[in-house]
Write a structure and sequence with these properties.
Blueprint lengths: L1 H27 L7 H18 L5 H23 L3
Helix pairs in contact: 1-3, 2-3
């Protein structure tokens, strides 16, 4: 039971947290203080964690690592676009 909950926490929290950052950048069209390089590294780290976990078809792994990586790359791109 605890392991199941522990598996769902990053699957929910990581993409939601990254999504909040992406939403803010897109809504306000500003990326002051947002490092596109850092978010690119976060995305690469998430891809590495996905491969390392070897749980390629587990929904928690897909949400926590792949979806978060996609959102992280989007943050990096929009941070470049909206950098003042």
């Amino acid at each position: 039971m605890i392991a199941t909950i522990a598996g769902w926490l990053p699957a929910i929290i990581l993409p939601v947290a990254a999504g909040i950052q992406l939403y803010k950048i897109i809504k306000y069209k500003k990326a002051d203080g947002v490092s596109s390089l850092a978010w690119t590294f976060f995305a690469i780290a998430n891809l590495g964690a996905y491969v390392f976990a070897e749980k390629y078809f587990l929904i928690q792994s897909i949400l926590a690592f792949l979806l978060t990586a996609i959102i992280n790359f989007a943050i990096a791109i929009f941070a470049k676009i909206y950098k003042s």
